[in-house]
Design a protein that fits this description.
Pfam families: DPPIV_N, Peptidase_S9. This is S9 family peptidase. By secondary structure, the chain is mainly beta. Helix content is about 15%, strand content about 35%. The protein folds into four domains: about 140 residues, Methylamine Dehydrogenase, Chain H (7 Propeller); about 140 residues; about 150 residues, Methanol Dehydrogenase, Chain A (8 Propeller), CATH 2.140.10.30; about 250 residues, Alpha/Beta hydrolase fold, catalytic domain (Rossmann fold). It is built from 13 helices and 48 strands. The chain starts with 6 loop residues before the first helix and ends in a 14-residue tail after the last helix.
Length: about 800
């Protein structure tokens, strides 16, 4: 269950006021420039869901060529925000240029295959056109799948070659590391295309029915953050590929209801406690034309977590996750024989998180992260899995390993903490830190700061080295580094800076803008900027944990009056939503309608300590709701909050939370909007549910406590239920069982269903309808059209 707060906020870029340029000499936001006063235009749903995008020219999927001379990125078309083109810009002089025009190459996009639709749904890709692309490691080509066919853009001269034009979709296309081949999956088999001969070779030919080669299975895509099922070795000799057999998975019949009728889909859906697909791993040897099976152990009921190659291609590293997700083994595999051995193991009493932090180094060592100290940190290991030294430490979590410069020994990572470097020669002011294997070292104290994120630099070669911020500013940074670790693409926003993308040297010096996205009179959002609400932040304490919250007030806010509040929620395991970053345009729709907008990251939500995340283990829907009650009670202490006019809205896990909250008397909600909610965790998939709740047989009490149905008689206000009628993730049955129970109990409620829509609501017209529905419901339950009896005491 990848995080969706609200269906529309997933697909609509956030808005905020006047842009501030990033400083030209370091990764730091510059002071906001003076700008002409913006007109006070009212932001409407009709404008939010229209072209051009209010986000302005936001670059997506930005990558740096291997030689560091070209930057590629995706940009929405001005005439259709839902179609992406591929753009490029030189890292030196020169303007950005369009490399692949999606409409020019494929004017009439046809229907995607079910496999590709499902894959894009898992990847949360809502647009059409060029939605993904990849470089070869030499930087000669950019490969771009486009509407089911494969196009190859040549760096030299910019020529675009069409490699396929078939009825079947080619999916998960890649350029081989040395740029000699292109590979893809077609009709459940892996195909390799020789660029020198223009000939295809089928690597497998047994893919049909319930057998699929080289494609990540449903659980890997949806719950393990793994979207591919095959991996080239660096020297192009080997291809590791998975084989999936779904015959063991239960068939869950579901109706796929569209505006033109309905079809029954016999979906293979592994529900909690039931059998998973059988996944095997093989290595194909291109030189010998044969493949060997990798020894993944005697227990076939495991998850194939991650697959990586050593830099010389002589070793295949495989992360094997136990079915209960409490044990993660790192296997070292001989690609010639498939023989394996366990070189490192991580364990947890709750669950071991999968990350993308594994990095093989040229000297044979590798970097990997673990939470064994209670916080996610990076460690250096030798080729046999023995820890050499910790790379990071402290009471804060590494968010991601972003890059390594193996020549200088610099390690780059993103994290959310405040750190005061210990002056040279000063021995005091540090404390004892304990590392895996009970290893101890002295370290400096740091303070977690969950609402901001920066890129940091540490050392590969020194124990207990100081950490240096590469970027700064009171906002949110993400970064994508080049292979050598000498440059990165940085993305930054804060409350006063829309998302901006720049190319930076490793020390944070700006080389050039990719998309400055300056908010001036020509920016589509400029007319609405002056009516943004004021955003404030704060904390609450719950069971020894600090919870962060944010609040946005309406334009013309008068604290001497009382105001209705909309609590936005996700609540489940995620990266957290309370950030000092560019705020959503849909939030402004709520503030324009006169609502205070509030969000709390409860326990379990956010990339924080293991203890913070594991608070919900075996009891989803309990500590999260308890923390939201704490937030509601805090709101009622504020003199400008109308105690009787508090609502909650959320999608996916947030939809579950909205249902749990509206049926919790201590919350006292006047209304709630629940979108695509999982309403009984036994109906959801194995990978997600068992990680946090174990199985229904082993945790009967926890599953019973999180079932929404018995709670429905406790509803404290009005409910709006929403769901896509073709949802293959949170199956529609989750909502129909609530509809049935409410009708049997004669409890009034409202429903809005979306034919043909899956787990998210796609496209401007439907999202416009969705937000009109939201606003209408809120207006009638806590807003200006709410019954007079519900507005008693309002000033």
């Amino acid at each position: 269950m990848r995080n969706i707060l609200l269906a529309s906020t997933l697909f609509v870029a956030a808005m905020s006021p006047f842009s501030a340029a990033l400083a030209q000499d370091v990764g730091t936001p510059a002071p906001a420039e003076a700008a002409a006063p913006a007109p006070s235009a009212l932001l409407t749903p009709e404008r939010v869901f229209a072209n051009p995008s209010l986000a302005g020219p936001v670059a997506r999927g930005v990558t740096l060529s291997p030689d560091g001379e070209l930057v590629a990125f995706l940009r929405s078309r001005e005439d259709d925000v839902d179609v992406l083109d591929l753009w490029a810009a030189p890292t030196g002089e020169g303007e950005p240029f369009k490399l692949i025009d999606a409409r020019a190459l494929v004017p009439d996009a046809g229907e995607l295959s079910e496999a590709e639709k499902a894959r894009r749904e898992r990847m949360r890709i809502s647009q059409r056109g060029v939605v993904e692309y990849s470089w070869d490691e030499q930087g000669r080509y950019i490969l771009a799948p486009l509407e089911g066919d494969i196009f190859l853009a040549e760096r030299e001269g910019g020529n675009v070659r069409r490699l396929t034009e078939t009825e079947a979709d080619e999916i998960d296309a890649k350029v081989s590391p040395e740029g000699n081949f292109v590979s893809w999956v077609r009709d459940q088999d892996l195909v390799v295309y020789d660029l020198s001969t223009n000939r295809e070779t089928a690597i497998t030919d047994e893919g049909e029915g319930l057998i699929t080669w080289a494609t990540a299975e449903f659980i890997a895509q949806e719950e393990l953050d793994r979207d591919t099922g095959y991996w080239w070795s660096p020297n192009e000799r080997y291809i590791a590929l998975q084989r999936t057999d779904e015959s063991t998975v239960d068939i869950i019949p579901r109706l796929d209801i569209t505006g033109g009728g309905a079809a029954t889909v016999e979906q293979r859906y592994p529900r909690a406690g039931r059998p998973n697909a059988v996944v095997e791993l093989y290595v194909h040897d291109r030189e010998r034309g044969r493949r060997v099976k990798v020894d993944l152990g005697a227990d076939a009921d495991i998850y194939l977590g991650r697959v990586n190659w050593s830099t010389d291609g002589a070793t295949l590293y495989v992360q094997r996750l136990s079915r209960d997700q409490k044990t993660l083994d790192l296997l070292s595999v001989d690609p010639a024989t498939g023989n394996s051995r366990v070189i490192l193991t991580q364990r947890s009493d709750a669950w071991v998180p999968l990350t993308h932090d594994f990095k093989a180094l040229k000297d044979g060592n590798f970097i990997w992260s673990t939470e064994e100290t209670g916080w996610r940190h990076l460690y250096l290991y030798d080729r046999d899995g023995e820890m050499i030294r910790p790379i990071t430490y402290g009471p804060w979590a590494v968010k991601s390993l972003n890059g390594v410069n193996q020549d200088t020994g610099e390690v780059f990572f993103t994290a959310s903490f405040e750190y005061a470097a210990r002056p040279e020669g000063v021995s005091g002011g540090h404390s004892l830190c304990v590392f895996p294997g009970d290893r101890q070292a002295m370290c400096d104290p740091q303070a977690e700061e969950p609402t901001t994120q920066r890129l940091w630099r540490g050392s590969l070669n020194e124990t207990a080295s100081r950490f240096t911020p590469v970027t700064s500013g009171d906002g949110w940074w993400s970064a994508s580094m080049n292979g050598p670790g000498t440059a990165f693409v940085g993305n930054y926003s804060d409350l006063n800076t829309p998302p901006q993308s720049g190319l930076y040297r490793a020390d944070g010096t700006l080389i050039r803008w990719i998309e400055e996205n300056r908010l001036n009179e020509s920016h589509p959002y400029f007319p609405y900027a002056s009516r943004r609400g004021e955003v404030t932040y704060g904390t609450l304490e719950s069971h020894g944990e600090t919870l962060v919250w944010q609040m946005t007030t309406p334009p013309g806010f008068d604290p001497s009056q009382t105001w209705p509040v909309v609590m936005q929620v996700y609540g489940g395991p995620s990266g957290g939503g309370v950030r000092k970053s560019w705020q959503s345009s849909t939030n402004q729709l709520l503030t324009e309608a006169g609502y205070v907008v509030f969000r709390l990251d409860n326990r379990g939500e956010g990339d924080r300590s293991a203890a913070f995340k594991q608070a919900l283990y075996l009891k989803m829907g309990q500590p999260e709701v308890e923390d939201q009650v704490l937030a509601a009670n805090y709101l009622r202490t504020l003199p400008f909050v109308d105690d009787d006019r508090i609502a909650m809205m959320g999608w996916s896990y947030g939809g579950f939370m909205s249902l749990m909250a509206i049926t919790e008397p201590e919350m006292g909600l006047a209304s709630a909007i629940s979108g695509a909610p999982p309403t009984e965790w036994g109906l959801y998939d194995t990978g997600y549910t068992e990680r946090y709740m174990s199985t229904p047989e082993a945790n009967r009490e926890g599953y019973a406590a999180s079932d929404v149905i018995p709670r429905l008689p406790n509803m404290t206000g009005r409910l709006l239920l929403m769901h896509g009628m073709a949802d293959d993730n949170v199956i529609f049955e989750n909502t129909t069982r609530v509809l049935n129970a409410l009708q049997e109990a004669s409890i009034p409620f409202e429903t809005m269903l979306y034919p043909g829509q899956r787990h998210g609501i796609r496209g401007n017209p439907r999202q416009l309808h969705q937000w009109r529905t939201y606003l209408d419901f809120l207006d009638r339950t806590i807003g200006s059209r709410a019954p007079a009896s519900e507005l008693a005491g309002q000033d």
